[in-house]
Amino acid sequence: MLDWELSTLGHPLADVAYSALGWRLRTNEHMGMCDLDLATLGIPTEAEYLAHYQAHAPAFGPLLPFHTAISLFRLAVIFEGIAARAKSGSASSANART
Questions:
Q1: Which residue, 3, 97, 18, 89, is CA-closest to 50?
Q2: Which of 15, 13, 38, 14 is nearest to 26 (CA)?
Q3: What is the pLDDT of residues 65-75, one digit of tens each?
Q4: Residue 63: closest CA among 19, 30, 31
Q5: Single pTM value for the model
Q6: Pseudo-torsion of CA 29, 95, 90, 87, nearest 10°?
Q7: What's the CA gap between 21 and 14, in Å, rounded?
Q8: Using CB atoms within 10 A of its CB, is residue 95 exposed (0-12), middle (13-18) or buried (19+)?
Q9: Which of 1, 19, 35, 74 fits a 20 to 30 Å CA distance from 29?
């Protein structure tokens, strides 16, 4: 699946950090799973996930707190856009206000 809404020519670690947000957010937050028993669910730890990425793309270096901060900012911008569309009545989802 490709999401063209955020398609950019940015640094690959920004995308990796965004995809790793689930390990840092709770289940009552968007994409969150940090409060789940990941081992029981067969989900790797964040460190394992990032090590797998690093093994296949070593040229990009380690994920830094900066990359995570940028990802959280990206998520905030996405939510602001959803809220603005919900307020204007042009949201594509019926549950945009929740």
A1: 18
A2: 38
A3: 999 999 999 89
A4: 19
A5: 0.77
A6: -70
A7: 11
A8: exposed
A9: 1
